[in-house]
Amino acid sequence: MANKLEVLTHEVSSRGLSWSEVAYMGDDLPDRECLDAAGVSCAPADAVAAIARSVDYQTRAPGGRGAVRELSDLIVDGTSPAE
Questions:
Q1: How far is 1 from 19, CA to CA, in rounded Å?
Q2: Containing domain of residue 62, as a range?
Q3: Residue 46 maps to a domain
Q4: 72 within domain boundaries
Q5: Predicted TM-score of the model (pTM)
Q6: Is 40 inside any structural domain?
């Protein structure tokens, strides 16, 4: 398995983004570095406690049950998940 932060760093760089433009959703400890690097960190309702406590926004929906849709709707509507 590739290092998640390396992959994300490559994507951010290749797309000409700044980290402040990145929203990242993760649910477990291997996501910690990416969550810390992203401008907005998010977790689904069923994320492990250590991750849930550390993110800017936690969805009401669990992973696989609408969490990404909830986050994308906030972004499309122009509402910052971190607010």
A1: 23
A2: 4-9+17-76
A3: yes
A4: yes
A5: 0.84
A6: yes
